[in-house]
């Protein structure tokens, strides 16, 4: 159900992104009527929210987690199956709220970050649509928190008797780390959203600079969630790519413990570098120097992971002629993630970022990591574990079929264009 609903939600997000691309095809109004220009902002907002909270998080975290954590642990179910049920049910409710914000009177074109004072203004936008957005995100956050609590208790308490945390596969480790980051950062995001909601509807002045509020404070709160969020999105993808590479090459990943340590380092460092989204808001020089240093420090564990995967690939030369599409998907993930990570290292410098902030360089960087990293991980996980998921070999293209190879090649060409 998680994977199916993520598929449906992702289709709606993709339609919105296609609208954006058609509109930006050349100058002037292409598809959005001139009297409704705000729809462009609304579509950017909804595209961000739908893709992050309703495609990648239910797909990678909820869907693959609920399938494969009990399998890898040898446990019959997750610990709280009904809590699990509840979390996917309220995911549909939150999706309904997000769509309701689309059809309210003026729309909620605040960008996916909901920055005040734009999100708290009564001038251009509708408070009801921003309220719907915030309600939807709060409900989705409750769902993610319940799911990660479930995974934590499952992974820590419901293992087979021979599995220790040291011998556990990489995918439950990835979900453990991801759930920890979610439980740490989602309450902060919920607090920031509730402050915006109170500014809108309850006449508080958290983010009103006229009365001593501070919009920058919201940016600190939001990005303290928003930067761990991108690692929440990518670390389950790391886990899936690890099980695919080790499954195709029939080897344990080279340096298993170092991979676990690298994921833990990424999550710990990822929670203290939120300021690199805010180089241009007037931070002090030494603050920016700290954020630059720690941001570039994150590249060390990710480089460790990439070279470990590559050594696993090269460590079994007789199997390298198995040109199956999942092997190609894994290599494609590595290529895309390397490109995205290299652009991110460039963006991590405070001086460079002054010129590159809010340009298409940033958009290309995180779409290389997310759209071409996490989504490729979803595809390859579905193709690699297709008959395990749906229970039959005829519904999905199998591991080595021509159809999945066509899918791979067309995906590759399409995403690089």
TrEMBL record:
Family: Belongs to the heme-copper respiratory oxidase family.
GO terms for biological process, alphabetical: electron transport coupled proton transport; mitochondrial electron transport, cytochrome c to oxygen
Protein species of origin: Alexandrium catenella
GO CC terms: mitochondrial inner membrane
UniProt-recorded name of the protein: Cytochrome c oxidase subunit 1
Name of the coding gene: cox1
Transmembrane residue ranges: 6-24, 44-68, 88-112, 133-153, 173-198, 230-248, 260-277, 289-307, 328-348, 360-384
Primary location recorded for the protein, binned into one broad class: membrane
EC number: 7.1.1.9
Cytoplasm listed as a keyword: no
């Amino acid at each position: 159900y998680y994977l199916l609903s993520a598929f449906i939600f992702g289709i709606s997000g993709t339609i919105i992104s296609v609208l954006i691309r058609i509109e930006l095809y050349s100058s002037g109004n292409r598809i959005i009527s001139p009297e409704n220009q705000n729809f462009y902002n609304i579509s950017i907002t909804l595209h961000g929210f739908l893709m992050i909270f309703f495609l990648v998080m239910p797909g990678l975290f909820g869907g693959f987690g609920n399938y494969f954590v009990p399998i890898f642990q040898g446990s019959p179910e997750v610990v709280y199956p009904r809590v699990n049920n509840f979390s996917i049910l309220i995911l549909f409710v939150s999706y309904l709220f997000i769509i309701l914000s689309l059809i309210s009177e003026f729309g909620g074109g605040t960008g996916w970050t909901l920055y005040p004072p734009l999100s708290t203004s009564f001038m251009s936008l509708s408070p009801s649509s921003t309220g719907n957005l915030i309600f939807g995100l709060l409900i989705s956050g409750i769902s993610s928190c319940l799911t990660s609590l479930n995974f934590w208790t499952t992974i820590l308490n419901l293992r087979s008797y021979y599995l220790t945390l040291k011998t556990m596969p990489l995918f439950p480790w990835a979900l453990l780390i991801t759930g920890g980051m979610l439980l740490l950062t989602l309450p902060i995001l919920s607090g920031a959203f509730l402050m915006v909601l109170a500014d809108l509807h309850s006449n508080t002045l958290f983010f009103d600079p006229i009365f001593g509020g501070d919009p920058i404070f919201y940016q600190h709160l939001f990005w303290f969630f928003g930067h761990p969020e991108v690692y929440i999105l990518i670390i389950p993808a790391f886990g899936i790519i690890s099980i695919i590479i080790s499954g195709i090459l029939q080897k344990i990943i080279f340096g298993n413990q170092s991979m676990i340590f690298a994921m833990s380092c990424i999550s710990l460092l990822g929670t203290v570098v939120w300021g690199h989204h805010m180089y241009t808001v007037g931070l002090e020089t030494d603050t920016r120097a700290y954020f630059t240093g720690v941001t570039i420090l994150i590249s060390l564990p990710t480089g460790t992971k990439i070279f470990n995967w590559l050594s696993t690939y090269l460590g079994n030369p007789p199997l390298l002629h198995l040109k199956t599409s999942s092997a190609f998907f894994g290599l494609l993930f590595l290529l895309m993630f390397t490109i995205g990570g290299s652009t991110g290292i460039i963006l991590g410098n405070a001086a460079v970022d002054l010129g590159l902030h809010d340009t298409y360089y940033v958009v290309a960087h995180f779409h290389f990591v997310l759209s071409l990293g996490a989504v490729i991980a979803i595809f390859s996980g579905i193709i690699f574990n297709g008959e395990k998921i749906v229970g039959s070999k005829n519904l999905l293209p199998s591991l080595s079929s021509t159809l999945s190879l066509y899918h791979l090649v067309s995906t590759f060409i399409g995403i690089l264009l």
